Amino acid sequence: MKALTFLFLCFAGLPLRADLSSHALFKHFIGTWKAVGELKGENSNLVTIAEQWTGKVDGENGFLIEGTRTMNSDTQPFQWVITHNTGTDMFDAILHGADASQTLRFEGNVSMVNLTLELKAITGSGNSSITVLDSLRGDTKEVIESKVIFKGEAGQTTLEGIIKHEKQKTP
Length: 171
Description:
Blueprint: H1 2-12, E1 31-41, E2 46-58, E3 62-71, E4 74-85, E5 90-96, E6 104-111, E7 116-123, E8 128-137, E9 143-151, E10 157-169
Antiparallel strand pairs: 1-2, 1-10, 2-3, 3-4, 4-5, 5-6, 6-7, 7-8, 8-9, 9-10
C-alpha cells in the first residue's frame, strides 16, 4: 500500500500531456481550410480578408496552422504555433508573419462547453490589444467563425469583424 501511495504522490505533480489530435476543439481544426471576411475600422476603414490554411497536430502538446492571408490585395504567408501549457491549462499562440517583425504572442483558453478558443495579445504600451474568438459552428463542426477585435491605447475599438473559415478537406 505504501508503494502505491508513493507512486501516486510522485506522479500527481506531473502535468498531463495534451493530445491535441483528440482534443475536443483542436481535433476539428485538423485539415485544409478556406476563409473570407471583413474587418471594419474607424473612419469607415474596410479590410477584406481571404485565407487558405492547413491545421495539424505538432508534437505532443502543439498545434500548427500554416497558410497564406490576403488583406485587401496584399498576400503574405502566416503561421500560428499553438502550445498547451499543462501547468496553467492555458494555450500560448505565436503568430508569425512574413518576417520576424510580424511576430505576436497571444495567450488563450478553450471553453469545452462552447467549443471556443479565445486568444488575446497585448500590443503597444499595454492598453492596446488584439482578441480573436474562434467558435465552431454547425453540427459537423466544419465551420469556424473568428471574431476579431483590435483595441487602441484608449481602449477604443479600432478594427473589428468576422472571418468565416470552411473546411475543404480532412486528412
